Amino acid sequence: MDILGIGPLELLFIVILAILIFGPSDMVKAGRTLGRALRNLVTSPIWYSFKNASKKLRTLPTELMRDAGLDEDFKDINREIGEFRNLKPTILADDLNRQLRETTQKAAQDAAQEFPDWTTPPAEIKPEPVQPPEPPQEVSSDQPLPNPEKPE
User: Fold this and answer.
1) End-to-end Cα distance, the chain
2) Which of 89, 99, 100, 144 is the most exposed place for a label (fewest CB within 10 A)?
3) Phi, then psi, of 143 in degrees rounded to 5
């Protein structure tokens, strides 16, 4: 039981402090004064505007989602999650792969229709054939090796 966010132990602590501060004779007078102040606060227009502002702040995310049209999306997502949870584990992996393939193909077709022609992929680059290196010439042991420092 919370009263204005104060639990029972906190309320007991406040009562004990009040008895120590005011004493038993002035407690009735202090309680009456506190009650009148709270009644004046709760019935004032300031309290009314404070409560309305607090209520608006609590409902603001819901209103923004509704205005943006996201509440339907969240309902769809929750429905999909519910359907996913109700799936039986007997669905084979081949069925899942087939569904995934169909979904991706459909998404690719939708994307191809949605985007203009300038988004075509670049032309395929074909590598040029590479010539193998020439084999080294055989050198016989009778011929002297050429000296790279001396020109012939």
Assistant:
1) 110
2) 89
3) -85, 140
